[in-house]
């Protein structure tokens, strides 16, 4: 009898997952639709980052579309849980998050920048509120995650070579599709415009809202075209135009950290922070998997084949 119930349940799940949805719906999550337009917008945002898509990624585009849809499904599950828990950012938290993107930019220029990106102030604000809501949910879900001192000891014992820190560079970038756009951006910066302001206005990279700031990184953590420039570029000097498979770049080195040996206290603090981040990420992935297992998810197979 139990095997008959199992087969019946499997048939119901299969039917639900493959049932027909309206043509304008890419998927449905517990009755909440993800529209085809939302999916296409997310795919465009992803591919625009690369400028002209590398051939390998072009061939993988159907798989990329499916992966993006899965992330949109996860997002719906997270937002639904946040709503259930009453989690959302306060007006002050939202304003603090939005302020850096508008800093130093006149209102008209800022609106024009949003328009070029295919959005407006309301949509931009809503997206920021959504992202902050998800961050707060992640913090709530993983609040009880901790790292013990024996765990830190065990990690250090297995990774004694990690005491040495390599040279690191903190750099900003501007990414554009066409070389003419890079020439114009470089002209504006040499003419006195702030690198960060130009990055926020024209860069296609996800770090544009931070003024192009890539943070600190060591050799090998970025594409080779990046390393060849930033590890030889003097601090504060604007690079020449750099071409990569993603488009055309400009770089500015903000700071350098020479290679050094970490103290015992610093090493333990860094390891504890890294382990905690890893455990929180693992805990949240487990939460997502559990939420998916309980959710009613339907796909439009004509838009995104399984």
Explain what this protein looks like in three dimensions.
The structure is a single chain. With 306 residues, the chain is α+β, with helices and mostly antiparallel strands. It folds into two domains: 2-141 and 287-299, Orthogonal Bundle (Triger factor/SurA peptide-binding fold); 167-258, Roll (Chitinase A, domain 3). It contains twelve helices and nine strands. It has a four-stranded antiparallel β-sheet. Strand 6 and strand 7 form a beta hairpin. The longest helix is centred in the C-terminal third of the chain and has 31 residues, at 264-294. The radius of gyration is 23 Å and the shape is globular. Residues 1-18 have low confidence and may be disordered.
Spell out the blueprint of helices and strands.
Blueprint: H1 2-18, E1 25-29, E2 32-35, H2 36-48, H3 55-59, H4 61-85, H5 91-102, H6 107-116, H7 121-141, H8 149-158, E3 164-165, E4 168-176, H9 179-190, H10 195-202, E5 213-218, H11 224-230, E6 242-244, E7 247-257, E8 260-261, H12 264-294, E9 297-299
Antiparallel strand pairs: 1-2, 1-9, 3-8, 4-5, 4-7, 6-7
What would the keywords be for this entry?
alpha+beta; Triger factor/SurA peptide-binding fold; Chitinase A, domain 3; four-stranded antiparallel sheet; three-stranded antiparallel sheet; 15% strand; disordered N terminus
Label the overall shape.
globular
- By CATH, the superfamily of the largest domain comes out as Porin chaperone SurA, peptide-binding domain
Give me the CATH architecture of the largest domain, please: Orthogonal Bundle
Helix residue percentage:
55-70%
* N-C termini distance: 31 Å
Biggest sheet overview:
4 strands, antiparallel
Spans of at least 5 consecutive residues with low confidence: 1-18
